[in-house]
Amino acid sequence: MAPPFEGIGAAVRRKEDLRFVSGHGHYTDDINRPGQLHAVIRRSDRPHARIRSIDTAAAAAAPGVVAIYTAADLANIGGLPCGWQVNSKDGSPMVEPKHPVLAEGKVRHVGDPIAVVIAETRQQARDAAELLAIDLEDLPAVATIADALKPGAALVHDAAAGNVCYDWHIGEAGPVDAAFAAAAHRVRLDLVNNRLVPNAMEPRVALGDYDRSTGDYTLYTTSQNPHVIRLLMGAFVLSLPEHKLRVVAPDVGGGFGSKIYHYAEEAIVTWAAGRLARPVKWTADRSESFMSDAHGRDHVSTAELALDRDGRFLALRVSTLANMGAYLSTFAPAVPTYLYATLLAGVYTTPAIYAEVKAVFTNTVPVDAYRGAGRPEAAFLLERLVDVAAAETGIDRVELRRRNFIPRDAFPYQTPVAVQYDSGDYFATLEAAMKHADWAGFPARRAAAAARGRLRGIGMSTYLEACGVAPSKLAGMLGARAGLYEVANIRVHPTGSVTVFTGAHSHGQGHETTFAQLVAEQLGVPVAQVDVVHGDTAKIPFGMGTYGSRSLVVGGSAMVRAMDKIIAKGKKIAAHLMEADVGDVEFKDGRFTVAGTDKSKALGEIALTAYVPHNYPDDLEPGLDETAFYDPKNFTFPGGCHICEVEIDRDTGVVQVVNFAAVDDVGRVVNPMIVEGQVQGGLAQGIGQALLENAVYDADGQLVSGSFMDYTMPRADNLPNFTVATENTMCTHNPLGSKGCGEVGAIGSPPAVVNAVVDALRDFGVRHIDMPATPAKIWAIIAAGQPKMAAE
Amino acid sequence: MYEFAYQKPASVADAVKLLADPEAKPLAGGMTLIPVLKQRLNKPSMVVDLARLGLAGITVANGTVTIGAMTTHRTVAQSAEVKRAIPALAALAAGIGDPAVRYRGTIGGSLANNDPTADYPAAVLALGATVRTDRRTIPADQFFQGMFATALEAGEIITAVAFPVPEAAAYVKFPNPASRYAMVGVFVARGPAGVRVAVTGAGQGGVFRHTGFEQALAKSWSAAALEGVATPADDLNSDIHGSAAYRAHLVGVMAKRAVAAAG
């Protein structure tokens, strides 16, 4: 009987799940080291204040306290580095104020760390932290973009005049202005992309360890990219060379971007472990996560679209204000620029695009990439704008999209905003989604709902995004301070089992399964005989980690290249053993054969020969262990069509998502079950953004939605059963043809949901609703609309 | 948590003695107290666990449902007797929090805490129930005295709650989207105590009776009777989830739905 197919395209069950669902996962907080101390951070409860004094005497005398550190103790360590430089229109570099590990002189947001107390137990550290006498002199704070940009507004950083970090642009204004002047239709929309708190299930943890006998440091941390943390913290903050610093990110319970960045606590525990020669552990509680994990989104934009008489898009003009928070988080400057404005062509042939982006400091938690990072903001803006354009030109919204889609035969397609799409078929995803959603049957369902007293609406988004960051050379030109390749080491063991060492990091994505399937496909080794190692800089080669849906498309491509080398070397060994010419040796399904003969050797036999090289080619190194670095040639461009159908309770304003169909083009699918899971998770987060989630600061800079009592996380009963499908075109420039699937759900869904809500309310004179579309907001519209309806 | 002493007395009398210490806190199901302690928002000298006082249990006799203070929400929700006598009460209990909360949380704990967004206060007030304590009985109309405030004296322990069986009753709530506590919960009842309507969640002062609705429903027990009857927004909460005007509107919507459900 043939073994079950486990290669590319097989819905292999996730190898990691037995561990996760049976409580055998091994997370950072599960790690405890002998002699371990506990760190508790005392954070600012004020949005903006001068630190007059910190009296540590009472805290230092408290039971169990080993050390208390403030900025004064960290004089020799650097600030947290920013990994991306964006230049303003005039060529000047962004304003990049120091991001101290502990607040120096001022606190700039609620949650800003001021001091760390280290004690024998966590309880003792907490007790002592309350005894710190910190004298703060309140300063005026700016909590919102609008407040920060008011003339005479309080400055978050003295160096950033007007609180502006950078004032950047892309595209050419001239042709856009000319197109607008000549256009038959002009449509304008002001919109907000609401601020979100990532809320991974596992809060952040950092545990620093130091070996006095060797001088070796180890940091165990909840990270999506341990090598990046080692580089940033070692080189920029603590001045530790790589060979003396090991960073381990074991099982990680969700990241969504928030665990990409290098955080203060990582540096604190590593530094303190060295100073005290004892391990030091810090574990966030949920309240702390709300005010110390980087937030997401937070854009205020104006978008304008020029159309000709037939509805063809002539030009797009966008002006966006992006909230950076109080400091620049690791990749923050790139999010509203190169991950956002470069996607403003979307799936459309708009020939002229100009976008301006002003990044603004505020007295809030730093903002950085969160699932989708820039692309959800672009998709929301475009897909809302297209719906408004359809309403105002009287052209059907599906027809308007079709008229402007990039044609199937136009690829590769060069956009006016720098990027070049390699492949796509937006008609195919549209048609499939409309079929799955029964778009044609909607009017009947709307009428039936109306008969039940409910308002029913349908909305779509035909979105596009960019994944697989990124070609290093291009990224470097755009300001990245790192390369963005990925690495894989494939180790074929003497008896033919395989260990994959990858620079990518799994924090829910299922790499242990997907990557094993790549090995099954290419080397013919059963999934059960493949293990995937990630997350430990002492084990894996230097790789960049997981974010931006890059693991398969960049990390998987590196694996393909490494396995190419394994096969090439194996052929030489096989040729020697079978006394054939290398050129005549073929490899398929785990066996080396000689063309035209019945000679054959299994991969395991070749591996054993490689490690026991008694009968072996003279000029060949022993061993079967190959590494490849893969630098992508381009981004990948997943896209698709999401269709959402909602019903609104007109008495309460509650929006219920009753149907959701997502048809995505993610390129080659390795494991369809995992892809569906990824899309479903993304949809949950996208629907969460559209209807539920909102990080709200009050005018004074306090985070009002600072707990789950007020921050509305999506729950199972907020979500319908999803219809998830793919209509794939292959990526043309990576060896797998894959495009990435991790973020499509969160990118495509918010505009589909809001378009559906606006459609449901079309009789109430509604043009746009900012997210989240809460019951209170919807009810206010209905309540205001009723008299008008009655009068009509 | 801060450190505290812990006692689990075996009689109500012993519990009352321990609670004579003004810094001591009684622990029922702990669904509010434990999170508060974990957030260090309270620093009791002692936690007095009421679990061993024999206060759990349900009896139905002479037109009264009597529920022991330590009876969990799940027990009330699952009770065949409660479902038969006051189905609205069983349904209310089935809708409190989540399964974990319902397995631990108790009716006595909920009432003593009198969270302005809790469900039980609406039932007690609308059904005209009587709260029994270690030393007296307190009518519902006197028990609730504002947000987190009750008629209970220091150290006084609720032992049971006695509900007169109504002719018709229902509870409908609009959950806060984030916390799922009642943003507006309305309990309507018609029975021995007359027509009574209690509103939880919405009011700044906690649960209150809606006399306008009561008068309208006394004339005509129908959802239509509530049409046009105002709910003043002046004393209602306003926050990021909704204005006072929205809450006032929801009070009317939930009340109509409750009357319709009560039949």
Explain what you see:
The complex is a heterodimer of chains A (792) and B (263). Chain A folds into three domains: 17-23 and 485-630, Aldehyde Oxidoreductase, domain 4; 31-139 and 201-254 and 259-292, Aldehyde oxidase/xanthine dehydrogenase, a/b hammerhead (Aldehyde Oxidoreductase, domain 3, Alpha-Beta Complex); 299-469 and 634-791, Aldehyde oxidase/xanthine dehydrogenase, molybdopterin binding domain (Aldehyde Oxidoreductase, domain 4, 2-Layer Sandwich), CATH 3.30.365. Chain A starts with 16 loop residues before the first helix and ends with a helix. In chain A, strands 3-5-1-12-9-10-11 form a seven-stranded mixed beta sheet, with helices on both faces. In chain A, strands 7-15-14-13-8 form a five-stranded mixed beta sheet, with helices on both faces. Chain A has a four-stranded mixed beta sheet with strand order 18-26-27-28, sandwiched between helices. Helices cover 28% and strands 23% of the residues of chain A. Chain A is α+β, with helices and mostly antiparallel strands. In chain A, β26 (639-649) and β27 (655-665) form a beta hairpin. Chain A is built from 19 helices and 28 strands. The model of chain A is unreliable at 787-792 (pLDDT under 50). The longest helix of chain A is centred in the last third of the chain and has 27 residues, at 551-577. Chain B is of the alpha+beta class. Chain B folds into two domains: 5-49, 2-Layer Sandwich (Uridine Diphospho-n-acetylenolpyruvylglucosamine Reductase, domain 2), CATH 3.30.43.10; 58-262, Uridine Diphospho-n-acetylenolpyruvylglucosamine Reductase, domain 3 (2-Layer Sandwich), CATH 3.30.465. Chain B has eleven helices and twelve strands. Chain B has helices at 12-18, 33-38, 73-78, 80-85, 87-94, 99-104, 107-113, 120-126, 140-143, 211-219, 244-262; strands spanning 5-7, 24-27, 46-49, 58-61, 64-68, 130-133, 137-139, 158-164, 168-175, 182-191, 194-200, 208-209. In chain B, the strands form three sheets. Chain B has a five-stranded antiparallel beta sheet with strand order 4-5-8-6-7. In chain B, β10 and β11 (194-200) form a beta hairpin. The longest helix of chain B has 19 residues, at 244-262. The model of chain B has no long low-confidence stretch (mean pLDDT 97).
